[in-house]
Amino acid sequence: MSKTLVVSYLPNAYSVTKKTLDHFLAKAQGKTTIVHRDLVKNAPPSYDETSMTAYQMRGFMGKTLTGEHSEAIKPFDILIDEIAGVNTVVFAFPTHNWSEPGVVKTYIDAILQAGRLIMYDAEGKSHGQLKDHKAVVMFASGGIYDEGNPRRTIQAAFTFYLNAIGITDIKFVPVGGTLMGPEVTEKNLAAAKAEVDSVVKAWY
User: How far is CA 76 from CA 16, 36, 139, 156, 197, in A?
Assistant: First the structure.
């Protein structure tokens, strides 16, 4: 059976994104093994002086880590090994001020490591290592942001992040207009659930 990593940050009890994710989990039940990384309960590590030095030493200088540097990088490697060990990754979060919440970006910063999920060749060209992975990005936003709107940031950012580690098969499942009244929200939530149905049918 395939394995799916769900990376969620859903601190709001009334989260519309959670409704989308719950629909996915119900539809995917029995079709894939779910591994859940809840960033509310388990915040990802952020770099301090020791862990950043460790990353620089290993990722860009080719050094073998020992002592405090080896210990400092372990929380990052746990996340990297986790996402590397699945077939599909699902991100689920709200938008905060027109972008992913800071804790989600911290998770992205933790896994986008040279020497692990990103390898560089002799010419300095990068090669993402998760070429067989697929990804779904679920998010809700207060407004509806069409192509070309400067507030439409999630699609561009996550395409860039995920392409960097080799993931090119990406589905976006937005629910826009959550501050535009219940009728708009329910309409767009229904469309998101239909997209989830399509993804689950195609991928599992």
Answer: 29, 16, 24, 24, 33
Indicate yes or no: pTM above 0.90: yes
E strands present in the chain:
2-8, 32-38, 88-94, 118-120, 126-128, 134-140, 169-175
pLDDT at 23: 98
Beta-ladder partners of 38: 8
- Considering only the C-alpha atoms of the chain, give the largest distance between any 2 of them, rounded to a whole number of Å: 57
What is residue 113's predicted lDDT score, i.e. its pLDDT?
A: 97
The two structure tokens encoding residue 103: 């804790």
Residue 191 belongs to what domain range?
2-203
Count Cβ atoms below 10 Å from residue 187 Cβ, excluding itself.
14
Tell me, what's the pLDDT at 70? 98
| CATH code of residue 198 | 3.40.50.360
Cα distance between residue 129 and residue 114, in whole Å: 10
Q: What is the 3-state secondary structure of 12-62?
A: CCCCHHHHHHHHHHHHHCCCEEEEEEECCCCCCCCCCHHHHHHHHHHHHHC
Under-50 pLDDT residues of the chain = none
Domain count, the chain: 1
How far is it, in rounded angstroms, from Cα 154 to Cα 40? Answer: 20
Q: Per DSSP, which regions of 9-54 are E strands?
A: 32-38
Q: What is the pLDDT of residue 30?
A: 96
